[in-house]
Amino acid sequence: MKIIIYGLGIIGASLAAALKRAGHTVLGKNRSRGPVEYALEHHMIDGEAASYEGADVVFLCLPPDATMQELNEDAFPSGCIVSDICGVKEVIEKAVYEKPRNYRYVGTHPMAGKETSGILSASEDLYRGKNLVITVNEYTDPAALDTIRSLAQDAGFGRIMECSAREHDAKIALTSQLAHIVSNAYGKSPLCSFVSGFTGGSFQDMTRVGGVDENLWCDLYFYARDPLLQELSGLIERLKEFEQALKTEDREGMRALLREGRLAHDRFFSEK
Amino acid sequence: MKIIIYGLGIIGASLAAALKRAGHTVLGKNRSRGPVEYALEHHMIDGEAASYEGADVVFLCLPPDATMQELNEDAFPSGCIVSDICGVKEVIEKAVYEKPRNYRYVGTHPMAGKETSGILSASEDLYRGKNLVITVNEYTDPAALDTIRSLAQDAGFGRIMECSAREHDAKIALTSQLAHIVSNAYGKSPLCSFVSGFTGGSFQDMTRVGGVDENLWCDLYFYARDPLLQELSGLIERLKEFEQALKTEDREGMRALLREGRLAHDRFFSEK
After folding, report:
1. Across the interface, do A209 and B201 touch by the CB < 8 Å criterion?
2. Distance from CA of A41 to the nearest CA of B (A)
3. B112 contacts A260? CB cut-off 8 A
4. Do B94 and B69 form a contact (C-beta atoms < 8 A)?
């Protein structure tokens, strides 16, 4: 199967390397030359793609705006399967389905990444055992979906979930976007500059993903504005309950809040 | 050197095992029998301590209230070095120095732990490369401090910091206590029950330590109430800035908030 991957950052280059290792022919495409040369040197791709000609599957591994622009170019061969990897999906589907297309779209969102980006952070093992969400709807072509599922297995993904774009956006607002806001806000305490040597795993975990690219994440936040706002406001309300218990020295209340969170945590972890 | 460790939970039993491996004679003491037997079977201690007789160093690896009670028993041999491992220190020092003691107190706080507790989670490698904070003041005996530093190295700690109890409590309010509140509150979103398969590292990191023992942590929170309240209120204010930017669709404001957090994050990580 001939696969073209446009966008050789951490997500695209890792996907390329994993699919090439699985035996597929993988061509790479990138706006700047550097990542293409790096990918060739490190055997992450079989060659560079000058166009989409002959592609069975194209993965657009680009930020949301660039993804929508490319989906609107209609530059894909007829019948080609086109997938994206964006962390928001309703807006992408809206762009795809605004007119008839000659390609078959299937959205994916790998639950994998690092706190660093770019091809230097890529690895053919990035997706091993990780979760992948595939978004489906009434227009999804069953054969295209099968192909994407099969490629996902080849890339090493563990659980592969299917859901609607709306369900995806609501859940990802909680599991990814809110986490990045909290981490970013956490690290802004003026005291953070003075705690070197005073940190353990809990602080490191809280602040790990805070160094977000403000342009990419600002777009993601506004494309998922409604579900994100709901989750952010909910978290602020819950934190204010802790604040209130501390202020009023309400020990019983504090214990009750913590117990409630512990039970939720235990339910969640037992489900995994 | 004869070391007695009272409290064979994850912290105490790991310390016992690490110090025994380093060649010290380590006796264990615990309110219930189970952990003592487990520690003996797994060669984490050399024997059980019936009293503190003959001890050069005693580590109290107990929750704050039990630690203060034990420090007030004055059951230690004269000149013995007594240390605790509590995550709050001003309140412990206040208990120690309320009257003259025949023992030499040095406070410690290992920046290590797991999201599980108890001796079954203990490991002689728990402290390898981790941070240790030692609290010192005008009453600290220099020879006792040297001994504790040397034992900390034997136990495998990486960086060993010294500071006052007040500085400790302020910094730990940010790096540990606030992190546990946020994690606990984060996991309480009603949507958490439905995101299995939709999670990656950022959500897992956010929720990892949320399952706290409400009695222990409630005590820790109120013993560090003032610095914790300051950090918690600060975080809530910063999260409300994000909420406001989302509500008013202020994209420039959102990018500015994220950029500020990224720069703080980069400063912090470059300092480590």
Report:
1. yes
2. 29
3. no
4. no
| Yes or no, beta carbons of A191 and B199 under 8 Å apart | no
pLDDT, mean of residues B33-56: 97
Residue A95 has pLDDT above 80, yes or no: yes
Do domains A2-163 and A168-271 share one topology? The answer is no
**Kindly report the CA angle at A181 between A175 and A183, in degrees rounded to 5?**
90
Nearest alpha carbon to residue B79 among B152, B144, B148: B144
**Domain A168-271 - what CATH class?**
mainly alpha
| DSSP state string for B3-48 | EEEE--SHHHHHHHHHHHHTT-EEEEE-SSHHHHHHHHHTTS-SEE
User: Between A192, A236, A254, which is nearest B239 by CB?
Assistant: A236
B108 touches chain A (CB under 8 A): no
Domain boundaries of chain A, sorted by first residue: 2-163, 168-271
Q: Residue A115's closest chain B neighbor by CA?
A: B202
Q: Tell me: pLDDT of A272 over 80.
A: no
The answer to whether A242 contacts chain B (CB < 8 Å) is yes
Query: What is the per-residue pLDDT for A271?
Result: 58
Q: Does B128 touch chain A (CB under 8 A)?
A: no
**Which among A192, A203, A240 is the nearest to B236, CB-wise?**
A240
Is residue A124's pLDDT more than 80? yes
Contact B195/A174, CB-based, under 8 Å?
yes
Contacts of B65 in chain A (CB under 8 A): none
Cα first-last separation, chain A: 34
Q: Is the CB of residue A66 less than 8 Å away from at least one CB of chain B?
A: no
For A127-139, what is each residue's pLDDT tens digit?
A: 999 999 999 999 9
Locus of tokens 């353990």: A200
Q: Exposed, middle or buried, A219 (CB in 10 Å: 0-12/13-18/19+)? A: buried
CB contact under 8 A, A193 and B235: no
Whether pTM > 0.90 for this model: the answer is yes
The complex scores an ipTM of 0.92
pLDDT of B272 above 60: no
CA distances from B201 to A71, A113, A138, B79 (A): 29, 8, 31, 49
Contact B126, B14 (CB under 8 A): yes
- To the nearest whole angstrom, how far is the Cα of A52 from the nearest Cα of chain B? 31
Alpha carbon distance, N-terminus to C-terminus of chain B:
34
Domain spanning B2-163, CATH architecture: 3-Layer(aba) Sandwich (3.40)
Per-residue tokens: B232: 């918690």
The whole-angstrom distance between A28's CA and the closest CA on chain B is: 26
Q: Which of B162, B180, B229, B235 to mutate to test the interface with A (most CBs of A within 10 A)?
A: B235
The contacts of residue B122 (CB under 8 Å, 6+ apart) are B8, B9, B10, B12, B13, B14, B17, B44
pLDDT tens-digit readout, B169-204: 999 999 999 999 999 999 999 999 999 999 999 999
